[in-house]
Amino acid sequence: MKLKTFLFIVLVAAISGFAESAIAQAKTLKITARYLNIPVAARDERAMMRFTIDGKTEREFRIRLASEKPDYHVFCDMEALRGKTILVEYEGNPAGLSKITVDEAIAGADSMYRETNRPRYHFTVRRGWNNDPNGLIFYEGEYHLFFQHNPYEREWENMHWGHAVSRDLIHWEELPVALAPDKHGTIFSGSAVIDRNNTAGFGKNAMVAIYTADSPEKQVQCLAYSNDRGRTWTKYAENPILDTKHIWNSKDTRDPKVFRYESGDYWVMALNERDGHSIYSSKDLKKWTFESHITGFWECPELFQLPVDGKSDNKKWVMYGASGTYMIGSFDGKSFTPESGKYYYTSGSQYAAQTFNNIPATDGRRIQIGWGRIEQPDMPFNMMMLLPTMLTLKTTRNGIRMFSTPIKEIDLLFRPEANVQEQSAEAASKLLSRFADSACLRIKTTLRLSHATSAGLDLNGQHLIDYDMNFNLLNGVFYSPDEMTSMEISADIFLDKTSVEVFIDGGAYSFSMARKSRANNKEGFRFWGHNIEVKKLEIYSLTR
Ligand code: FRU
Questions:
Q1: Same domain for 427 and 517?
Q2: Mutate to test the pocket of ligand 1, among 129, 130, 132 (most ligand atoms within 8 A of CB)
Q3: Is residue 3 part of a domain?
Q4: Which of 53, 162, 165, 241 could form a disulfide with 149 if both were Cys (CB 3.0 to 4.6 A apart)?
C-alpha cells in the first residue's frame, strides 16, 4: 500500500470514529424564560453537553440526554442569562436536543414536593443528586445548608454546591446552585465561615466558602466569597490556595473544615490528606501553614470543642471523619491529641456529617447534619439529609462519650396521638398498628425484657429495633446500655416516607436506614420478644 493511501485510510477511520464519540450536535436556544428543562433517561449513555454564549463556554457537564421517553427532567436556572441566545452542544445521541424547552416553570413543578416517595420532613433536592452537607453556617437569622449536588442527574457526577436556607432548621427553601465547576475542577466538599474582621479582604462579614476543586490530576483547596448572604458567589481569582498533592504523594487532599480558633485569633483548617486529618493555620484564609497530621481518618474532617456534661469549665475537643467514628482529646491550636479510644455514636446510612459554624453563643449548641445514603426509588431526585441533631459529651461508665439527639425544633413537627404505659406486646402492637398506614410517625418507646434474650419492634417485617441482649447487638451493631445490667432499652423512632432514624437511650447511639416498602407484608407494627413489656409507648403524627 502506498503511504498516501494508508494515510488517507487512517484519516477517514479517525474522522468516522471521532464522529461517533465526540462530534457535538448543536441547537441554538433563546433564553426567553427562567428555566431550561432537559429530559433525562437512565438508559442513555452519559455524554458532554456544553452551553456557549457569544463564543464563550458558559458551562459544560455530563448528562444522559433522553433520546426517547424521558425518566424525568432536570433544569437549569437561566435567570442571569435571560434574553441571551445560547448554543447547546451535545456529544452523545442528539435525538433529545429538540426536546429541551425554555419555560418559566420547572418541568413537573405542579407536583414538586408532593411526589410519592418524597420525604416529608427531611431535606431533599428538587432535582438531581445530593451527598455531603457543605458550608453549614448560621448568619443573620438564616441557617445555610450547602451540599454536594449533581443538578443534571439523580446519580453522583458534575459536583456543584447546591444551596438551601432555613430559619428553623426544619423548613428549607432551595436556592439556585451556589458554586459550579470551573477550570480547577468540580466542586467537592468544604465549609464556610463569616469573616467578621475582613481578614481575607473580601469585605467585612463576607461569607467565605473553603472547598476542594477536584480534577483528574489532583485535588486542591479553593476560596469563594459572598457579600449578599450567600445568594451570589465570586471565586477567588488566585485559587487554589492550597495544593499539597506533591507533599502527600496522593490525590486525596480534600474537604477543608475551617473555623476561627478564638484563643489564637486565627483560622484553623482540618483537611483530610491521604491517611488522616492535617491541621493548617492562617491569618487571612489565603496563606496556610501546615501544623500537624493525625492518621486514622478518611474524608470530611470535623474538629470542635464541647463542654463535658454541660460544664463550661471542662471542655474537650472531638475529631471525626466521614464515617463519624470519633476521638476525644485536646487541641492547642496546632495539633489534636487524642485522649480516648476511637468510638462510634451512629451507624447505618449516615455519612460525611458536618456541624454548623457561627451558631450564636446565646444558643451554644453544636448542631450537625449528616448525609442520609438512602435511595429515593423512581424519583427525579435521590438521597437525602438526615435530621439535624445536637451533639453533646457525657460522662458514662466507659468514660466520656458523644451523644446525638434530634434538635428540639423537631418537636414542633409532631402532634401527640397516643401515650400508654405498661402494655403487653400484643396490646401495644395493636394500638400502634392503627397508625401503620401513616407515612410519617414518631414513636417513643421503652421495652422491658424479662426473659432471655431478644426483643424488638417490626414494621411490616422490617426490624426498626432488633435488640439481642446476649450478644449485645442492636440491629447488628454492638451496643450495651450504660447500665449494663439493665433489661430496658428506649428508642425515639422517626419514620418518613423512605427512611427510618432511631435514637437509642437518649442519644447514646443512633442508627438510620432505608424504609422497606411494604408490598408483600402488611402485618403492621409488631413488638416481639419472650414475655416483653412495653413500658412506654408514645405515638406522634406529623402536624402538616
Ligand atoms: C464524601 C466525599 C468527599 C468529597 C465528596 C465528593 O462523601 O467523597 O470526600 O469531597 O464526597 O462528592
A1: yes
A2: 132
A3: no
A4: 162
